[in-house]
Amino acid sequence: MNGIILFSTFYILGIVGFFTNTIPLVALLLLVVAIIFLFNEKISCKGAVLYYLAFALAICNCHFQIKNYDGLSAFIPSDAAITGTVETIPTTNVPVRTKFYLKAQSGEFDGVKVPKLDGRTIVTLYDTPQNISRIKISDKIQLKGKLRSPFSAKNPCQFDYANYLKNKKTFSTFYVQEGDWKIVSQPESFGSKFLQKLNDTRTRILNHQKKYMKSPNIEVLGGIVFGDDAINPPDLIKTSFINSGLLHILAASGMNVSIIFGIWYFIGTRLRLNYRFVILVGAVLVGFYTLVTGMGPSVLRAALMIEFVILGKLIDRAADSIALIFLVALLLLLYDPAMINDVGFQLSFVVTFALIYCVPPILDRIKNKPANFLAGAMLIPFVAQLWAAPIQMFYFNNFATYSVLANLAITPFIMLISFGGFLGSILAMIPVDFIADKVCLVFAFVLNPVVSFLVSISHFFAGLPNSLLTTIHPHSAQMILYYGALLLLARSMRCGFKEKKSLVASVILGIVLTISLLLPVVKPLLSPVSKDCEIIVFDVGNADSFLIKTPKNKYIMIDTAHGIFKGSKATFSQANAIMGKYLKDKGIKELELMILTHFDADHSGGAVDIMKTANVKRLVLSKDKDDSKTTKAIMEYVKENKVNTTDAKNNEVVHSEKGLTLTTFTPDFTHNKNDNDNSTISVLSFGDFDMLFMADGGVRSFNKIKKDLNKTEIEVLKSGHHGAKNTVTSKMLNTIHAQNVVISTGVNPYGHPTKQTLKTLRKNNVRTYRTDVDNAMKITTDGKTYKIYRYNPEKRRFEKDIENPCK
């Protein structure tokens, strides 16, 4: 076996072991592999030691490079003034907001001056588009704002933003308002000046192109040629390209690098230019393109591979493509081990390896040139999709049904756009605006219809039925089984299926994988009724959202926290990021019932997002409807999609099954009424277990419905209005004999939960759980006993806190 491949594999697995906290297990498995290879004389004793040293090197490198803090961490949270250098090209997805990474050099935190700093933060800056456009990479800038911790995953299945930033050596976020910043100085070093000049040139070219190409063509061209941080495409285009499986072309990738070099090489050889000249110019073009696009993992991978091949050509050495891709991965991960967590890195290397390993053996057997070309055109997108699909499902919970056909259809157009756009950009770099403008005019004339046709192809495939399937989150073990089966099948195929052991092993792994996928479907059929009821208390900050799973595997959601809806100014949806992601990961496609207790945005703002994610069979709304944007958006969606909707009624059983009922109560105040006091209250009863959901209602609401409540033993009380004043009293707690209270709260300017509320709970010996302290929670009960679990973000699982009998 190739030594580079083995050395790189041991090193990569060492990094995987570090980030998954499975170093002992990985070390043991690699030891077993090394012994087997030694026994079969695949490697020597010296080789085994060397490869194991690669594993140890990975662990040491990770410990050396991966930190949990930097110089800014000690000052979180604080009101700060920070001076530093803009490290990345500012990304402006919203006209009045931009984001960039800042290398902090000095600062002042809550009045304490720190003259020297070594830290990195991600800045979110709000200002006018004109002012934002002045900020450039490598500028030294001074900012005043709020330094905060990035949010971590405090819910199951939630994206961990803090961990994402940690992989980029960033441990804080910095929020800056209009006017609270100024540019101190321009870059001084040659490298910094070069990067800024390069970015200025890119911006200048795009501004010329905007005169002759309109949206969405200019965004598509900009993404293909300059990368996804060049121009933000409209949401409609993003959705179209996601559904068609073509989103990858909106970001500069390794494919673009290969196309640019390949077409230049083809032109150079046809013009009979000097071979070394063609190779060297190709190397310069690849390097330049890599810098222009921001050096993303995919582009870096392709660029390094091509540069190594070029080096081999110059010294008359042939390159082993498979060994080369492992070598490039090794070099990148030596420089930054955290790069392995980047989705682009994973997709780029997995798909490239698959294409190199699987496609040539098949095409080599097809001697007819036209047939070989057609087979390659069809095989490449098929193999790419086959190997990329699990990663896409793992991170994004979707599968583009027509991706292979769509990618096949765009192949000739993407080649023309990539090379033509890049060539036009190089010519437009001439520092004479008149010439640059005319160059952009000519290339826009040629490329505009091509880009339009490409967009039409995307729209066509995106518009087909079931173009984008929502999938569950595959388990890591299933990923290993899948790729193991594919790898063994490819190995057998490379040997002309003469390697029977590999083929048999591939079939066995495939069978095990199939069983693991069918098990969740078959299990409920074998035992359709479980004995437990489960309630998930999502941590959605100072908002509410709960998911109930009944013994018959029916799902009920009470409130949906914040979301994005028509007319809202929100740029982030809790409903999509937290509850929606959970529903997708667990394969929950239908909600038996959704209750929206009232129309405040922190309770029902995410309703439209949830209804887009899962089919809601019945929607129960508060009868008090206002003229808010939230209410209008919900009612409009309900009407357009014919959702079965009813108003909440007092003392009405809205769901029942054997041993379980969910009952709504409506205070129905007419005098001095408000949305909070009139919000719908619910009681979940299962056997001897009862949980009271107070929504935003307080003591006044409770007193109005207590005559109908008929419950004197409440195991769990969901506090009203996030623990605000007058949400509980000793009399109320004694009336229901509450054992535990759950307060759904987070950072807020209202002082929730109030000291008065917490004092009352302590005084009455009620066990208190808070989402801002205990994260998400899970409550399970069989009707006789109940258990309360708290979510552990580090272990990414629920851990049991208490288990008590029901009264």
Task: Present the secondary structure layout.
Elements: H1 3-19, H2 23-39, H3 45-65, E1 78-86, E2 91-94, E3 97-109, E4 112-114, E5 119-126, H4 129-132, E6 140-148, H5 161-166, E7 173-185, H6 190-210, H7 217-226, H8 235-244, H9 254-270, H10 275-292, H11 297-314, H12 321-335, H13 343-363, H14 369-396, E8 398-400, H15 403-427, H16 433-462, E9 468-470, H17 476-494, H18 500-526, E10 533-537, E11 545-549, E12 555-560, H19 574-585, E13 590-591, E14 593-596, H20 601-604, H21 607-613, E15 615-616, E16 619-621, H22 629-640, E17 645-647, E18 652-657, E19 660-665, E20 681-686, E21 689-693, H23 699-709, E22 716-718, H24 730-736, E23 740-743, H25 755-763, E24 767-770, H26 771-774, E25 777-781, E26 785-792, E27 797-805
Parallel strand pairs: 5-7, 12-14, 13-15, 14-16, 16-17, 21-22, 22-23, 23-24
Antiparallel strand pairs: 1-3, 1-6, 2-3, 3-4, 3-5, 6-7, 8-9, 10-11, 10-25, 11-12, 18-19, 19-20, 20-21, 25-26, 26-27
Helix pairs in contact: 1-2, 1-3, 1-12, 2-3, 7-15, 8-16, 9-10, 9-11, 9-15, 10-11, 11-12, 12-13, 13-14, 13-17, 14-15, 15-16, 17-18, 19-21
